[in-house]
Amino acid sequence: TQLLEQSPQFLSIQEGENLTVYCNSSSVFSSLQWYRQEPGEGPVLLVTVVTGGEVKKLKRLTFQFGDARKDSSLHITAAQPGDTGLYLCAGVFASKISMGNEKLTFGTGTRLTIIP
Amino acid sequence: SAVISQKPSRDICQRGTSLTIQCQVDSQVTMMFWYRQQPGQSLTLIATANQGSEATYESGFVIDKFPISRPNLTFSTLTVSNMSPEDSSIYLCSVGGHGYGYTFGSGTRLTVV
Prior knowledge:
The complex is a heterodimer.
Chain A: E1 5-7, E2 10-14, E3 19-24, E4 29-37, E5 44-49, E6 55-58, E7 61-65, E8 71-76, E9 85-93, H1 94-97, E10 105-106, E11 110-115
Parallel strand pairs in A: 2-11
Antiparallel strand pairs in A: 1-3, 3-8, 4-5, 4-9, 6-7, 7-8, 9-10, 9-11
Chain B: E1 4-7, E2 10-13, E3 19-25, E4 31-37, E5 43-50, E6 56-57, E7 68-72, E8 75-80, E9 89-97, E10 101-104, E11 108-112
Parallel strand pairs in B: 2-11
Antiparallel strand pairs in B: 1-3, 3-8, 4-5, 4-9, 5-6, 7-8, 9-10, 9-11
């Protein structure tokens, strides 16, 4: 079974602080995505990364894909209460693509709370 | 990106009954995906629904419990059959591809009593 582990599972910090969330697997990804989910809603796509070592920025959010395409991180600078939510990494494993299977495997999730 | 309308948004059902969840997409898509999200958990894929063929179920999910229909390229339904309290979850449909991300419906929050 191919697993995606996220850490930390829960994170509660003060507004203005920085934080990093990690997503790790023992298998190689064809692509990896980060989503944020708020209560009562489905996950919303934040970014897709496909190239090892790739770095993408979305305002105060910085996403990095590991060189070996087995891990990723999400860094938030100067966190704000609006950043509160469940952050999910999700990937398509390279071995599955070769089989014509594009199903998405989700990470265990990080529940982030930003305290005003 | 596609826009998905999912309904109902929530329901409370008696054990032993069935609930059918509908997803309508504003564009034609080849594959639709159904997920379950148990309270406080991440998402688990139930099945992949292709138009014109039977759905492909993941390990731990069976067609008798979660029958899926895919009558055309913009619509799908998931039925949760013979419900028990353990089926209380959020159920989500999704469309997309690994190169450009996935779009999700807003989910159906099911409570079985």
